[in-house]
């Protein structure tokens, strides 16, 4: 446990963080009953010697798996805060979110290309949590296993998340940018916990 704490502290010391909170965030929170997390736009930037072992289709599949894994991890983070009474709004399950998107003819992995206002209407929520995720090694179980089999396993060296909370009127309520260099553990949940730990009390949707 002490080792994990020291790792997290080391990560924070090496990270870059930017946080924007809309001046009207209090009003937006009051108008919000439920938020939904959609799959992030994900870019896995493998090194040339790693890329040669994968087709472009396999890379896309790897990125899609990573995006859905991060979506679930982010939902779990919010759900834990909701159960603790620390989340001021509800959070929709990824299963429902992705099913509603498919019913509307939208690929869940491409939902980030749509306006928040359209997605909020489809999903029946007031806020969309979306963003971009870039890493040089995947952390979803399937993708990480594939690299390990080829001898390219190990800790992720860098990850960058640009996270947006967007209201149904298409206004950004929160933008959170964080770049981390160093080992991040072995799962998407580890990444999300490291990303959200420090900023959680500053996001207007939590207390």
Describe the protein in words:
With 207 residues, this protein is of the alpha/beta class. The protein has a single domain (2-202), classed as Rossmann fold. 42% of the residues lie in helices and 22% in strands. It contains 8 helices and 7 strands, in the order αβαββααβααβαββα. Strands 1, 2, 3, 4, 5, 6 and 7 form a 7-stranded mixed β-sheet that branches. Helix 4 packs across helix 8 (188-197). The two termini are 25 Å apart.
Distance between the termini: 25 Å
Low-confidence stretches: 1-14, 141-155
Structural class: alpha/beta
Number of domains: 1
Mean pLDDT: 81
Short description:
The chain has 207 residues and is α/β, with parallel strands linked by helices. Helix content is 42%, strand content 22%.
Brief descriptors of the model:
42% helix, 7 strands, alpha/beta, seven-stranded mixed sheet, 22% strand, single chain, Rossmann fold, 207 residues
SSE topology sketch:
Blueprint: H1 2-13, E1 16-21, H2 25-30, E2 34-37, E3 41-44, H3 48-51, H4 56-83, E4 90-91, H5 94-103, H6 116-123, E5 127-135, H7 141-149, E6 158-167, E7 172-181, H8 188-197
Parallel strand pairs: 2-4, 2-5, 3-5
Antiparallel strand pairs: 1-7, 5-6, 6-7
